[in-house]
Sequence to fold (195 residues):
Amino acid sequence: MTSHFTPVAPGKLATIVTHFEMRARPRPRPLKPVPLRLKRWQAPSADKYRMLYRRVGEPWLWFSRLLLSDDALTAIVHHPAVEIFAVLDPQGIEVGLLELDFRQSGACEIAFFGLIPQLTGQGFGGWLMAQALTLAWRTGVERVWVHTCTLDDPRAPGFYIAQGFVPIAREIEVMGDPRLTGLIPREAAPHVPLI
Fold:
């Protein structure tokens, strides 16, 4: 078997996206108590949503929602079939984001799922996923799915598998580096070199 390399132009990023799905509600697992709570955001403003989206996702170069106009973003986050939740710490500070998208009949996409970097690796992700799955599996839902990419925390694929998701597809995505346009600070995601 031979390998094949495809050049990526300067100023571009290439990432491998892996899609995962779950076709049956998992059995509940015992969870340790955590000092976090989930709060539903009813119709958050575009600015408020972007603030938390940046706080959670900027270290991993999340930027798709930053490209949207206020109207386009509001159309998503105010849609009646999209549910947005903030993870709050004991002081009420927003430290995580969960977004569930029920717009596709019979399915729930965990569109965004994350905690600020200071909270990763402490078991809080398992708690947040338990909350996500409890909310996602409702009457009429036959499939819950999520995707991650090689720009995300490298532990993400193993985490999703450990939570009961099955990998089903892989794609390559090429996009402009948002740090070069000023959309995200140049120092964000130091694990991804600027070229």
The chain has five helices and seven strands. Residues 47 and 140 are 33 Å apart (CA to CA). Helices lie at 46-57, 70-77, 124-136, 156-162, 178-181. The chain has a mean pLDDT of 95.
